[in-house]
Specification:
- By secondary structure, this protein is mainly β.
- It has no helices and eleven strands.
- Strands 2, 4, 5, 6, 9, 10 and 11 form a seven-stranded mixed beta sheet that branches. Strands 1-3-8-7 form a four-stranded antiparallel beta sheet, with no helix packed on it.
- β7 and β8 form a beta hairpin.
């Protein structure tokens, strides 16, 4: 069973920055896809950013140029650097890994609140 623990959420003013971390309980060297999703109250969960084993990244249009996803395989950790935060970025942020089998695992989430 893969366990994912997110950290780094909190409250910031608009224009501020936060860095989220997601530590996995297993080696991530061979995990094909890791990433972040978010869910705001009343909304569906949506993709924020993903990163492959080769470092190829994909971002939601709403965060391009502001957010950066990265992974440290040696530390079994994936990060999300969030800059120029906006009130509409307020949400619970969830770490996700997609195994080679296709099975998905989720963290419990970390709350990001951006005040205007």
């Amino acid at each position: 069973q893969v366990q994912l623990v997110e950290s780094g959420g909190g409250s910031v003013q608009a224009g501020g920055s936060l860095r989220l971390s997601c530590a996995a309980s297993v080696s991530i060297f061979s995990i094909p896809l890791m990433g972040w999703y978010r869910q705001a109250p009343g909304n569906q969960r949506e993709l924020v950013a993903t990163i492959t084993t080769r470092g190829n990244t994909n971002y939601a249009d709403s965060v391009k140029g502001r957010f950066t996803v990265s992974r440290d395989n040696a530390r079994a950790t994936v990060y999300l650097q969030m800059n120029s935060l906006k009130p509409e970025d307020t949400a619970d942020y969830y770490c996700n890994v997609q195994m080679a089998s296709g099975r998905n695992h989720w963290g419990k989430g970390t709350l990001v609140t951006v005040a205007s």
